[in-house]
Design brief:
six-stranded mixed β-sheet; 2-enoyl-CoA Hydratase, Chain A, domain 1; alpha+beta; Pdz3 Domain; six-stranded antiparallel β-sheet; 391 residues
Length: 391
């Protein structure tokens, strides 16, 4: 998830802060300006000297742009924070497209792990779906390069690309040990942000609404689907957040506000920012409408903010599997080269004060789907739990 702010972080300023922070234990403001500038200029000169020497003398030709990018990524990588990243200009463009609800790629949502990229959802009609990629598959190589271990954190950017170009994925399906090679042609993907439908169970109409991402205005798209199924006679709702990797923090607040009429949604706290409490924005549906929130291991970030708020405020029962466990948030700082610094700046807390970073939320009603069968066992459990609440 990303939380924007206005200031632009220029490259040299960011480099200065980093090196001064190393020298002063993370307190660059205590260093006199003259001494700080002298210190930074020396280290910048060493960096340029290092890159110049490699570019000139290394036994293979290496583009300077690759070395510059590697040095910037190396600075951020030294934080050992899986959620902080340096984005190149192309990666920044891709990120902005995702925030807007669209991107160029194969049409999957993934979570990084030690063994590669776990597919948590596949968009219907996408190139990935047409190539046979399914939820639960594990991507271990992209274009022949292994993405296991730390490499999985940024591997999704390697899968994306211009429409019409192709990418080869090595994929391991559940129950298999040998990866298969899948060639997929990329396309422009319009993310189906929200969908709603009516399911009739024992003569009772129940609404199922899905939300795939927390991109700009996703709360409006979800509200449209919620109103639609309620107008069609739904007596209760299942909010399906499985495979939703999150997005914008403010969208998390606004989505929760669809169901919570007033009061605390989430609080945030950072080293350089005071505690901030984000309350419901108003205009919620009737609190008398029973609600289930359906989650799994791909439910992360802003989706977990919504899950925690609905649970702690007593508005919904959480059904499914343990969520991903991302209890921090980032800010995006545009850089002068067209790239961006995606930096973790704080933690968020559910209304009861819990921070779930690295742990996730445990469901109140456990339910697990079997990807080998066409039946959606987790959704069936959510619907039966909801049906009991409508009586």
């Amino acid at each position: 998830m990303a939380k924007y702010r206005i200031p632009i972080l220029a490259f040299l300023g960011g480099l200065a802060i980093f090196f001064a922070g190393l020298w002063l234990g993370g307190h660059p403001s205590s260093l006199p300006d003259r001494l700080r500038n002298t210190f930074v200029s020396k280290n910048t000169a060493v960096r340029d000297e290092l890159i110049d020497t490699i570019e000139t003398n290394y036994y293979k030709k290496v583009p300077r742009s690759s070395l510059d990018t590697a040095s910037l990524k190396g600075i951020v990588d030294s934080l050992n924070d899986r959620f902080s990243n340096y984005f190149t200009p192309d990666e920044t463009k891709s990120f902005n497209q995702q925030v807007a609800g669209q991107f160029e790629g194969v049409g999957i949502s993934v979570n990084p792990g030690a063994k590669g990229l776990q597919v948590v959802s596949v968009f219907a009609g996408s190139p990935a779906a047409n190539a046979g990629i399914k939820k639960g598959d594990l991507i271990v190589k992209v274009n022949g390069q292994s993405i296991t271990g730390p490499a999985s954190e940024t591997a999704s950017d390697k899968i994306k690309g211009r429409p019409g170009t192709s990418v080869t994925l090595a994929v391991v399906s559940p129950g298999q040990t040998t990866p298969r090679s899948v060639l997929i042609k990329r396309a422009k993907i319009q993310v189906p942000v929200s969908q709603g439908r009516i399911v009739t169970d024992k003569g009772v109409k129940l609404g199922v609404v899905t939300l795939s991402t927390f991109s700009q205005d996703s709360h409006d798209k979800l509200r449209t689907q919620v109103d639609k199924v309620l107008h069609q006679g739904a007596k209760g709702l299942v909010l399906d957040l499985r495979g939703n990797g999150g997005g914008l923090l403010q969208e998390g607040r606004l989505v929760a506000s669809i169901f919570i009429p007033k009061g605390l949604i989430v609080s945030t706290n950072g080293r350089h920012s005071p505690e901030e409490k984000l309350n419901a924005s108003g205009g919620a549906i009737s609190p008398k409408i029973p609600l289930i929130v359906l989650v799994d291991g791909g439910t992360a970030s802003a989706a977990e903010i919504v899950t925690g708020a609905l649970r702690d405020r007593g508005r919904a029962t959480v059904v499914g599997e343990k969520t991903f466990g991302k209890g921090v948030f980032q800010e995006i700082e545009p850089l002068s080269n067209g790239g961006a610094l995606d930096l973790v700046v704080g933690r968020w807390f559910a209304p009861n004060g819990e921070n779930i970073n690295g742990t996730g939320f445990q469901p109140q009603v456990p339910a697990q789907d079997n990807p080998k069968t066409p039946r959606d066992a987790a959704l069936d459990k959510a619907l039966s739990t909801l049906l009991a609440k409508t009586g």
